[in-house]
Amino acid sequence: METLDWIEVGAKAGFLVIVLLQVVPMMVWVERRGSALMQNRLGPNRCGPLGLLQSLADVVKFLWKEDPVPGHVEPFYYVLAPLVSVVPAFMTFAVIPFASSIQLGGRTVQFQVADLNVGLLYVFSIASLGVYGIIMAGWASNNKYTMLGSLRSSSQMISYELSMGLSVIGIIMTFSSVKLGDIARQQGQLITQLGPFALPEMLQIPKWGIFVQPLGFLVFLVAVFAETNRLPFDLPEGESEIVAGYHLEYGAMKFALFMMAEYLNMTTASGLLATLYFGGWQLLPGMAWILHGVQDLFGLTGVYAEWARVLFEGTSFSIKVAFFMWLFVWVRWTLPRFRYDQLMDLGWKVMLPLSLGNIFVTAILIYYGWV
Question: CA angle 80-254-15, nearest 5°?
């Protein structure tokens, strides 16, 4: 790699880390205010306007709070476990494109940290490493409740990661690529036929993943909730059964790192949902008209018009990610927790057959040229 390539990658990686670090306190505030809204109460409202500074106060508290290592734990692995959970959470977002590309000085700049030709495989491989931090925390804490939580997490990961991986096979078959940038780019096309029937121009819709793979989207969405340990799949930390699960013995900044990993995984999952099934950085309906209006109003041409397009694409992607982040909160404060046998039955008896059936149906549609 040339020096400019290293500078470009470093700048994009630094920008991504800064943005992800801002997402965590923002989502903590959204979680609190969202739960309050659904339960007809106020939530944080004292520390700053609308309680916006409450998350900042919590960060200061976690940083300065005493953080002793209990005497009965395995010290090395106890300290290592939160880092093993949070590092993969940062790494997985690197291949998700948040805008298309732009020409600068004869160079094509992609708006993703790493444009890998195995992007989807990278996401699944790195994301699966996070469960090792949970297993390590449960074992190193030398506590029966933490061990139960880590065992639950590992079995849940095996059960639902299989269905999640199979659910995206339909997307790969439809767009003939595992590069997330290519998948997002192809979703800018239009669906011109429904089965063997051609659609009139007024009924043509974008070729977003949710329209060509509705069953795959449903399976992937449910599996994402299970993989991120969010309600109704938060069995690894079921408070009513195992106190706090795998992070029972953790406090201060170590506990905060586990929570940070959870919210970062939610962000990556939301980015994947937006990229695979909602067009990624493709503009939302009406945004193209607004973009052209802005370009005409300010007389933007050349590189300035391109930067305006990239800004609108990034905004469109951010809106889609924000919607799914809110969906995580909405579901958490709406649905009750599953029993463990229900969790396993859903994963093996419902999700797995549906994901396999989706591959079969997709293959038939592609064979007859209907997709």
Answer: 90
Please tell me the predicted confidence (pLDDT) of residue 150: 83
pLDDT by residue (tens digit) across 58-101? 888 888 888 888 888 888 999 899 999 899 888 899 899 988 88
Nearest to 217 by CA among 273, 154, 283, 289: 273
Q: How far apart are CA 183 and CA 191, in angstroms?
A: 15
CA distance 25 to 301: 38
- The one-letter amino acid code at 151 reads L
Q: What is the pLDDT of residue 215?
A: 94
pLDDT at residue 1, rounded to an integer: 58
Pairing of the two strands 197-198 and 205-206 = unpaired
Contact by Cβ (8 Å): 206, 279: yes
Query: pLDDT tens for residues 118-138?
Result: 888 899 889 888 888 888 888
Q: Is the distance from CB of 169 to CB of 147 less than 8 angstroms?
A: no
Cβ–Cβ contacts within 10 Å for residue 169, how many?
18
User: CB within 8 A of 9, min separation 6: which ones?
Assistant: 1, 113, 114
- At 270, the amino acid letter reads S
- Of 144, 158, 153, the residue nearest 230 (C-alpha): 153
Read off the DSSP letter of residue 69.
P
Please tell me the distance from the alpha carbon of residue 190 to that of residue 101, in angstroms, as a whole number. Answer: 21
The answer to whether the bond into 196 is cis (omega within 30° of 0) is: no
